[in-house]
């Protein structure tokens, strides 16, 4: 006989019963289930993040394990605190259910013409998850999001009686309950829109570390693929110091190249209630631990709202703040993006492309270079599947991967010099490079490679030109971040506020500011959050 401990909700009891039945079928050992109430079950009138992020649904079950009142507790793994409890262990991780988020909604509120989420503007959607709230707001900022509590059937019933137009839920819970959704509709939200919580859809079967009998029995339930993926997702959460209320999505799945990691970190909705964009990561490779650490390195500088109360103006081509603006928002800053230049495609004979790149690897230092080059390659019918590709930074690498290609990117640093070092460290070392770039660019990448006798063919595919009708708002009190010499010249040619604190990214941009008569208050080495956030903290007023 094995005693299972379970919360009293329909879903918790269903999960415990399903695991217990599988264990009995595999081992012949009988079971009984003891219901244990948790803090998360008792407090139903407050949003989950406000009543504590750790152990809301697990602490009482873990106490019962320690005391020997139960032998096994079945948890939704995403609810487990990321730090192991002394004396307890996860004895098995069964095969994972469908990990995605779903929207269950009343078709009376449907608007099929709306993209991504087919609901009328203003429809009220229920969720108590910071992550789901931010994801939905990013996809459909015209919807209203409100807290909702209760178990899964209760939340669905609140849609039926008209309290909400819809609710966001985990597909796994609905599927395990086989809930009757007649009269309602269900749509899955792909990970690109709503990346699931770390370990969503996975179960953790917990027992005492010293209970050899139970641990041996539980091995019959264990799925190593699910365990590897779910534990990696929770490892990312742990490396960021987060709990279940951190607005982090993370999904690891097997792929042809080993594993794929999709992750997103959103802004704290209390600090940045209007923030729409999170910092997204889409990485693939054979070394999953290295992928998790790369993601942690990108996201760690944003944790803890280090820029809360600070205002930042980013001068960016086409007004596209990109990942840098999103990262500063997640770090707590109020970000305004100002278009002082616009990108303009340079005419290139696409038919020449296969000949130009023959025998060469590809290198990119900007997202715009990636997009323009791949458009040319498509027009030429050029097959790039076997080409080795290098990208100068995380956003550029993500743009390459979005076109279905693997790429190599610097482990440390970003920019031209770091990209050159990455290429030179590759075995076997490439001896010829096609560099799709801007007409005006820093020369560090080409200079470094030519010093090492690597043949570099620069292919300008776009240029940046000043915006003709630039209107510069008052900038006093915050910081203005100049990302390129062309932005400096376009800004200085029209107007500037001498009271603003001006920050340059890189020494070349700083030199352009000096030449244009702009006082440079500080220089960030690279266009990354890791370098820019400390600079802004030292420079901006709170």
Structural commentary:
It contains 18 helices and 23 strands. The protein has 542 residues and is an alpha/beta fold. Among the domains are: 2-93 and 201-220, Periplasmic binding protein-like II (D-Maltodextrin-Binding Protein, domain 2, 3-Layer(aba) Sandwich); 101-189, Periplasmic binding protein-like II (D-Maltodextrin-Binding Protein, domain 2, 3-Layer(aba) Sandwich), CATH 3.40.190.10; 344-466, Rossmann fold (3-Layer(aba) Sandwich), CATH 3.40.50. Helix 14 runs parallel beside helix 15 (444-451) and helix 16 runs parallel beside helix 17 (507-515). It is globular and about 80 Å long. The mean pLDDT is 89.
Average pLDDT rating: 89
Per the CATH scheme, the topology name of the domain at 344-466 is: Rossmann fold
Q: Rounded to an integer, what's the Rg over CA atoms?
A: 26 Å
Question: How far apart are the termini?
Answer: 61 Å
> How is the main sheet built?
5 strands, mixed
Shape: globular
Which stretches are poorly predicted, pLDDT < 50 over at least 5 residues?
none
The percent range for strand residues is: 15-25%
The CATH class name of the domain at 344-466 reads: Alpha Beta
The order of strands across the largest sheet is: 2-1-3-10-4
Give the number of helices: 18
CATH hierarchy: architecture of the domain at 344-466: 3-Layer(aba) Sandwich
DSSP, total strands: 23
Structural class: alpha/beta
Oligomer: single chain
The portion of residues assigned to helices is 25-40%
């Amino acid at each position: 006989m094995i005693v299972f401990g379970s919360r009293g909700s329909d879903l918790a009891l269903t999960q415990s019963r399903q695991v217990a039945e599988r264990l009995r079928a595999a081992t012949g050992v009988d079971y009984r289930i003891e219901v244990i109430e948790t803090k998360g079950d008792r407090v139903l009138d407050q949003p989950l993040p406000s009543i504590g992020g750790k152990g809301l649904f697990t602490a009482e079950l873990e106490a019962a394990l320690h005391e020997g009142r139960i032998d096994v507790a079945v948890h939704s793994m995403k609810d487990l605190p990321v730090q192991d409890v002394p004396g307890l262990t996860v004895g098995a991780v069964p095969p994972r259910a469908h990990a995605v988020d779903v929207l269950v909604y009343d078709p009376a509120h449907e608007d099929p013409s709306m993209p991504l989420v087919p609901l009328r503007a203003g429809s009220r959607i229920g969720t108590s998850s910071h992550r789901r709230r931010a994801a939905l707001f990013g996809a459909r900022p015209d919807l209203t999001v409100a807290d909702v509590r209760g178990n899964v059937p209760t939340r669905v019933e609140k849609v039926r009686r008209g309290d909400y137009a819809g609710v966001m839920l985990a597909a796994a819970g609905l599927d395990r309950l086989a809930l009757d959704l007649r009269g309602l509709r269900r749509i899955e939200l792909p990970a690109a829109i709503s990346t699931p919580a770390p370990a969503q859809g996975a179960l953790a079967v917990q027992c005492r570390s010293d209970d050899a009998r139970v641990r041996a029995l539980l091995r019959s339930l264990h799925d190593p693929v699910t365990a590897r993926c779910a534990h990696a997702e929770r490892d990312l959460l742990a490396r960021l110091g987060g709990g279940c209320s951190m607005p982090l999505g993370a999904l690891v799945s097997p792929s042809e190249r080993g594993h794929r990691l999709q992750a997103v970190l959103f802004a704290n909705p209390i600090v940045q209630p209007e923030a729409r964009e999170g910092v997204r990561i889409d990485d693939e490779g054979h070394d999953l631990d290295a992928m998790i650490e790369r993601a942690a390195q990108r996201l760690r500088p944003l944790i803890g709202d280090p820029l809360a109360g600070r205002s930042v103006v980013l001068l960016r081509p086409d007004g596209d703040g990109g990942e840098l603006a999103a990262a500063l928002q997640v770090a707590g800053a109020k970000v305004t993006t100002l278009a002082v230049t616009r990108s303009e495609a340079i005419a290139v004979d696409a038919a020449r492309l296969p000949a130009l790149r023959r025998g060469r690897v590809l290198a990119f230092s900007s997202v715009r270079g990636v997009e323009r080059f791949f458009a040319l390659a498509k027009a030429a019918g050029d097959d790039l599947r076997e080409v080795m590709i290098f990208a100068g930074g995380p956003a550029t690498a993500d743009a390459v991967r979005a076109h279905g290609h693997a790429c190599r990117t610097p482990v440390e640093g970003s920019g031209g010099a770091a990209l050159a070092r990455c290429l030179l460290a590759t075995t076997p070392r490439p001896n010829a490079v096609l560099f799709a770039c801007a007409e005006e660019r820093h020369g560090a990448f080409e200079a470094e490679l030519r010093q090492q006798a690597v043949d570099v063919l620069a292919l300008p595919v776009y240029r940046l030109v000043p915006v003709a009708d630039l209107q510069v708002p008052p900038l006093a009190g915050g910081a203005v971040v100049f990302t390129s010499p062309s932005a400096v010249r376009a800004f200085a040619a029209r107007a500037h506020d001498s009271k603003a604190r001006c920050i340059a990214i890189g020494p070349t941009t700083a030199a352009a500011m000096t030449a244009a008569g702009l006082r440079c208050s500080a220089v960030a080495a690279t266009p990354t959050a890791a370098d820019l956030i400390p600079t802004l903290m030292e420079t901006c007023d709170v």
